[in-house]
Amino acid sequence: MGKTVATNRKARHDYAIEDTFEAGIALTGTEIKSVRENHVNLQDAYARIEGGEAWLVGARIAPWAGGNRNNHEPMRDRKLLLHRSQIDQLTGRTKAKGLTMVPLSMYFNDRGKAKVQLGLARGKKNYDRRRDIAARQAKRDMDREIADAMRGR
Q1: Hey, which residues does 80 pair with through a beta bridge?
Q2: E strand or H helix at 100, and its extent?
Q3: H or E element: which one contains 126?
Q4: Where are the alpha helices (DSSP H) in 4-121?
Q5: pLDDT in tens, 86-113
């Protein structure tokens, strides 16, 4: 994975990620220039499969500052580039298990191509979130105690 442009921190908070995979994304000229300037927000975005094609919905790529009236629409649906076998597999898994596809991050690979890391996710309940927060806090407390003991306090 190359240079990370945007991450969706809320996705790991709201969903339990079961599997991840990489997808290309079809962008216009002004969109890719805006992405290179890190003007991407994946906060409320999700992916869906419609008509045998995968689409990224709700991702915001800000209009390019150097653009003119032909600049792109910031909230338009963008096509995800996946192999047919991947689309078929994702269709089956999302319908059978009730999973959702959420973008976890957008980045440039080693060849300079924009990619989206998608996660197959299951929504968390409130008690799952509280359990995660309590586990994180307990780990933090243990690490603090160990560090204090190592310092000889």
Answers
A1: 25, 54
A2: strand 100-108
A3: helix 126-151
A4: 9-14, 29-36, 84-97
A5: 999 999 988 888 789 999 999 999 999 9
Residues 6+ apart with CB under 8 A from 41: 6, 59, 60, 61, 62
d(CA 129, CA 11): 12
Pairing of strands 78-81, 15-25: antiparallel
Share the mean pLDDT of the chain.
Answer: 89
Cβ-proximal residues to 114 (8 Å cutoff; 6+ apart), any chain: 5, 24, 25, 27, 32, 35, 106, 107, 108
Residue type, 75: M
Distance of alpha carbon 86 from its chain centroid, rounded?
17
| Tokens representing residue 98 in the block | 């009730």
Domains of the chain: 4-124 (2.40.280.10)
* pTM metric for this prediction: 0.78
CA dist 82 and 79 (Å) reads 9
CB atoms within 10 A of CB 29: 12
